[in-house]
Amino acid sequence: MDCKNLPHAAFPRRIPAPAPQLSLWRVDLGDPLHAQAIAAADCLSPAEQAHCATLRQAADRRRFRGARVALRTVLARRLDCAPSTLRFRTGSHGKPYVEDTAAPAFNVAHAGDYAWIALAEAGGEVGVDIERIDPALGLAAMRELAAHCLTPRERAWLALLPARAWPRGFFLLWTAKEALLKALGLGIADHLQHVSVVADGRGGAGRLAVVPESGQFAGEFAGQFAGHAAALARMRLYRLAAPDGYAAAIAWVPPA
Q1: Which of 6, 54, 189, 204 is 20 to 30 A removed from 234 (C-alpha atoms)?
Q2: Number of separate domains in the chain
Q3: Where do the 4'-phosphopantetheinyl transferase N-terminal domain residues begin and end (predicted)?
């Protein structure tokens, strides 16, 4: 079955996006109807099938295949073409794009039983992330992760939260940082300390502030990635309403 002919109930579900220039789609990978349709779909490229086969865990193969089939389905309907004809390329840090000048920028994230697809309908760049809030992750482990992943500004905000709120607070910051770095097309591990996410609630419901860090980190960011610094100044970053037990965020860089 070609992806274009997915049953309506198995098609990715469009959900509200925080800005009219964006469209957002959710894939319920754990839904039996969707899983059955994805298993029967025949639109992945040989390279995608080969990559899927290298994944050791069945859950990882299910997530990758489900997200890719859904992405091809959404983009094919947007571009009015057959899903199997879409040709993907990757940027220097692995961010995919479609080899078609009419295609919007897009981004995909998946975790647990969900995959999310974001399109920048009005141009620019987009990044999205969803993470499962691990209930087994203790406070000590989160503090250790925060010391590596978060800036001093972010850790100070997190420290103000009661212990019970740490998991949601940590994953709010993490998903936002991953979404914004994906929107910029930068490697995540190399740039976690270059920018802070400020969850102060200003700028509208769900809107997050982005603060370039001063000193050495900001100097490296502005020097080596001056174009990205300009994009960062235009960025709009939002937390998203996610299913129970998950956190999600989306970042959009409008055209200059």
Answers
A1: 189
A2: 2
A3: 32-118
